[in-house]
Please model this.
Amino acid sequence: MNLFWTFTLLLALSVSTFAQDISAQLVYAFNGPVSQSKEVSELGYEDKLQRAFKYHHYRVTHQGVSSLKSDGVQSFALGSDFSAQIEKLSKNGDKYAVKVILYHFDKEILSTNADFSKGNPLFIKGPAYDQGLLIFVFTVK
Amino acid sequence: MKNPENMPELAGYIDGELPPSQVDRVKDMADANSGLKQAMEDQEAVKKLLRLNRFTHEVPITGDMMWDRVYRAIEQEERKFDAVRNTDLITLIIRRFWAPAMAACLAIVLFSAHQGLNDKFVTIREMRTPHGVSATNYRIPEAGVTVIWMEGLDYIPANSSIDPAS
Model:
């Protein structure tokens, strides 16, 4: 009996260890003064966004979290306009190879493979929006 | 009386070398002898002229000064020769080493450019998406991120469905 519980515990630990959440965020990048209508989000990777896109401020407008614990397709609704699908293709250490499909309403605007890992997010430059830019951000939690 | 110009006292008097007792004696003799007096006036005039013109006389070149001039001339010639020799050396260096120097400069520029690209975007692949949107997959090693750069998407004006805060 004890052996059974030990085995169950080890299985749960291994699943929780290898099952990592992936976060998808729609980020609005903009310049100019920060006002009440232009709040700034605490993302934790602003310096990386700054290096890649050169905007001063970033705000998350929509986000979703899903697990990469099993093979299959995870869907993220990023507001009513955009959505994303992530399919895990392989995993090598901390590095994930995924297939990313982006939709604007029902129109597929991007379908590609990409690599990313914990601490190394994937940024996708989206359309120009208002006075700035929309960026799709995928991170491993 | 002998010729007054041959009197040794007269020369001493003119040069101011006589003692006072002899000076008075020569003066008395000149008062008594018009020829002697004339001779004294002539000698004094000559002495005055010599005194006036003594600074216009050209200084004779001594032996030491001549050698100084020779040394200076030699030094000037040596300096000219050194300048010509240095110019020739520079020309030689430029002629012999301009090609390797240019190659080294080019290598430095290319290496710097390569490093600059490494610090920014490294293209992984380019792709076309179904609706005419072009996308390029980049890597920014310095920042530790992968970026997919899409171009050709239409501008979206501000709306609350995308950004509830707008």
Q: What stands out?
A: Chain B has three domains: 4-56, 60-110, 120-166. The radius of gyration of chain B is 52 Å. Residues 8 and 14 of chain B are 10 Å apart (CA to CA). Helices of chain B lie at 8-15, 20-32, 34-52, 63-119.
